[in-house]
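Researcher: Structure for this, please.
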Amino acid sequence: MDLTEKTLSSETQFDGKIIHVRRDIVELPNGHQTFREVVDHHGGVCVLALDSQNRALLVRQFRYPYREVLREVPAGKLERGEDPERAALRELHEETGARPGQFQSLGELYPSPGYCGEIIRMYLARDLVFEGAEPDEDELLDVERVPFDALVEQVLSGEIRDAKTIAAVLKTKLLLEL
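Model: Predicted structure, C-alpha cell format:
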C-alpha cells in the first residue's frame, strides 16, 4: 500500500531564527484531506565523548521549555549548509574543550517525526585531548564526567531523559560490546 501524502498547499505560520513553522493541507492515500503542522529546523549534532578512563562528558544546562536543568551529551544546531561532522567537532570543543583522536558516526535520530523535520546526527568521540572550552556567550553550562557504565544505568533508570543522549549512549553500549 502506498502511504505517501500529497501536499496540496503550504502556508507559513512563523519564521524564526531557529525554526520555521508551516501548516500544510495534504491529501491522504485514501483521498481524504487533512492538515499537517510542521516545524522545520536545520538539524543538529550531538557527541558522546569518552575519556581515557571511559567516562562520558556530559553538560548540565537549563532547558527553558522544561524549566529544568538537564544532563546531556554535548550538542548544538547546524547552521544552514554546515557539514554535520565539522559542526559536531566544533560543538564538542566549544562546550568541553575536547578534541578527539577517534571520531565516528552513530547515525541519525528523528527526535519528533510527528511534527518536526529536525534530524540529529550522532557521533562517538574517543582518545580525547583537552584544551580550553569556548562556550557561546548565551551557553551557560557545567561539564561533568560520568563513568560510562553508570551513565548506561542512569539512562535505563530514567534519570537521563534527553532523547539524543539516550540514543547515543545505548548505541555506543551495543557497539562497544560487539
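Researcher: Any notable elements?
Model: Residues 39 and 116 are 5 Å apart (CA to CA). Residues 44-177 form a domain with the Nucleoside Triphosphate Pyrophosphohydrolase fold (CATH 3.90.79.10).
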